[in-house]
Amino acid sequence: MRVLRYILPAITIWLNVTAQAAAPGADAIIARAYETKRVDDQISTLSFTFSTPGETDRQAIYTMVWKNMHGEDGYDNKAIFFTEFPPEKKGIAYLGWLGTAEDTKESDEWIYLPELRMTRRIAHRDHTHAHDDDEFGNSLINRTHLDPRPPHMDDHQFIGEAALDGKMHYLVVSTPKHHGHGKEHMSNDTPAKTIHWIEQESYRTNRMQFLDAREKEILDMRISWIQMGDYWIWKSINATNPDNQAKTVLEFDKIKINTGLKDRDFSKRALEKGSGRFR
């Protein structure tokens, strides 16, 4: 199988042929992992560290305010990101009403610029160009990598089992059925295949490897979790480019969940008021 040539050699050492026969089918594994219980809303501090070999690390810190829309009006979630660091950008805020992976309408997005006291809509074409002063110009992680994809949008293939951090995982390769269809997060940057490492005991996804159309690994993403009540929440995400060893690390802190956020909290006016009222 060609795809196995691009997985780390350790996988082939840990493949368990006898266990494969008893493993659930690929569709069932992915479906159960997708059913991980999501919170209704979350407020947290997000810290990004962008590292490139030979260069000084860059950091960006945000207060994130997020609400699960459960597909209402075609939106998956609504989110605000208030910039806290670097200091020269403190107060810049982003608002997104973000569509579901399978809905054809584009997301609605705005940015607030405190120096101008102005909120402007972000045109879809603005996402196609990274700027030198944009911290995310160096980010390896984008919405394509973080959004859970409904299982029926992909074809799934079970390829084996492997150990990660002392626990056994199912390995499932997912391939989009309609690569590059009309959504903004199904662009040319959308990986051609994704290898999911799904922990057998919990069905949490602890690692994802993204492959290009030639089945070459282009991103290795490790996920760690923290339990809060009945929910498991991302604690950190560590993404590495295997070609040049550039890294993006995303860490969540000061997490609050199910706070009762309302739709009116995700308005353009909320951007101007800043993050203080959510803390």
Brief descriptors of the model:
279 residues, mainly beta, outer membrane lipoprotein receptor (LolB), chain A, 13-stranded antiparallel β-sheet, 5 helices, disordered N terminus
Helix content: 10-25%
CATH topology: outer membrane lipoprotein receptor (LolB), chain A
Name of the top-level CATH class: Mainly Beta
Biggest sheet record: 13 strands, antiparallel
Structure commentary:
With 279 residues, the chain is mostly beta strands. It has one domain: Lipoprotein localisation LolA/LolB/LppX (outer membrane lipoprotein receptor (LolB), chain A, Clam). It is 10% helix and 42% strand. It is built from 5 helices and 13 strands. Strands 6-5-4-3-2-1-13-12-11-10-9-8-7 form a 13-stranded antiparallel beta sheet. Strand 10 and strand 11 form a beta hairpin. The chain is globular and about 55 Å long. The termini are far apart. Residues 1-21, 128-133 and 180-188 have low confidence and may be disordered.
Present the secondary structure layout:
Layout: H1 9-14, H2 17-20, H3 26-34, E1 41-51, E2 58-68, E3 75-85, E4 93-99, E5 108-113, E6 118-121, H4 143-146, E7 154-164, E8 167-176, E9 193-199, E10 205-211, E11 217-228, E12 231-240, E13 247-257, H5 268-273
Antiparallel strand pairs: 1-2, 1-13, 2-3, 3-4, 4-5, 5-6, 7-8, 8-9, 9-10, 10-11, 11-12, 12-13
